[in-house]
Amino acid sequence: MEGALVFQKGNKEEVQEIFEVFSEGIKEMIANGIYQWDEVYPTMEDLENDLENEELYVGKAEGDIGVVFVLNQDFDDQYQNGKWVLKTEDFMVIHRLCVHPKFQNQGLGKKTLLHIEEILKSQGIKSIRLDAYTLNPFALRMYNSLGYSVVGEANWRKGKFYLMEKILNDKGENQGLT
After folding, report:
1. Spans of all domains in the chain
2. I need a surface site. Which of 33, 41, 92, 104 has the fewest CB within 10 A?
3. How far is the CA of 58 from the CAs of 13, 76, 101, 112, 158, in angstroms?
4. What CA–CA distance (Å, rounded) separates 170 from 126?
5. Is the CB of residue 132 less than 8 Å from the CB of residue 161?
6. CATH architecture of 5-167
7. pTM
8. Of the candidates 80, 170, 86, 163, which has an alpha carbon nearest to the alpha carbon of residue 120?
9. Residues of the chain whose pLDDT is less than 70?
């Protein structure tokens, strides 16, 4: 990936390009035998709601949207299955992190997660939570390499997902379970 990665809130005018990132990402996952997402999820309506709530962010590389993610405090009831290290409200949840296939294998996902950590630390957030499909080895390897710990499991339509958490401190080191 050449040039800088610029993060900003997504806007409604970009919804078609954002949807395309997911469409291409889903095709790539299926080509790799990962059946995490499909025509049922995530939908255009999901993305429009994320934009309406101002919770969807994009990372632009070379003028194109290379990565999309949602950041908020919303979570499914199955998050109750997690043995969360921090029992506080000072957390954020990452949803729908997707790297466009033309930018994959270039460290964009990792750069995005490190960016998210820095922003959240500056806001006093103490913990990042997410769920990761157990049959997506690429995502699991990335999260593990950055110090996310499995704290539980959830079962949804597509199967088993790990509930994961990373504790943030002032130095950005993981203080959670390993």
Report:
1. 5-167
2. 33
3. 13, 23, 15, 9, 25
4. 9
5. yes
6. 3-Layer(aba) Sandwich (3.40)
7. 0.91
8. 170
9. 1-3, 170-178
